[in-house]
Write a structure and sequence with these properties.
Number of helices: 0
Strand content: over 45%
Oligomer: single chain
Helix content: under 10%
Order of helices and strands: EEEEEEEEEE
Distance between the termini: 40 Å
Structural class: mainly beta
Shape: globular
Number of strands: 10
């Protein structure tokens, strides 16, 4: 059974930084494309960034230059470094494997980690 556990969220002021972690069991992250997603209150869940098995990275426009996705193959972890945070980045953040490039995803969602950015 594949499980994802997200952590690292918190409350931060605008302009601050957070590093999110995605731990997985039942799946080798190095062999899969893994995405970070977020869902803000009242909005649909959306892709933020993804990293391919070959290490290629993709970012949606609104996080380009601010967020960096990375992977630690030895630890089977994927990270999302978030810099220059904005209040509009406030959301619950999740990781998962996309079926194709974004949504839908292959596995059940984890609990996510809450990111709150104050102005």
């Amino acid at each position: 059974q594949v499980r994802f556990v997200e952590s690292g969220g918190g409350l931060v002021q605008a302009g601050g930084s957070l590093r999110l972690s995605c731990a997985a069991s039942g799946i080798a992250l190095r062999s899969n494309t893994i995405g970070w997603y977020r869902q803000a209150p009242g909005k649909q869940r959306e892709l933020v960034a993804r990293i391919g098995s070959g290490g290629n990275e993709y970012y949606v426009d609104f996080v380009k230059g601010r967020f960096t996705i990375s992977r630690d193959n030895a630890k089977n972890m994927v990270y999302l470094q978030m810099n220059s945070l904005k209040p509009e980045d406030t959301a619950v953040y999740y990781c998962n494997r996309p079926v194709s490039s974004g949504l839908p995803v292959s596995y059940n969602w984890g609990r996510g980690t809450q990111v709150t950015v104050s102005s």
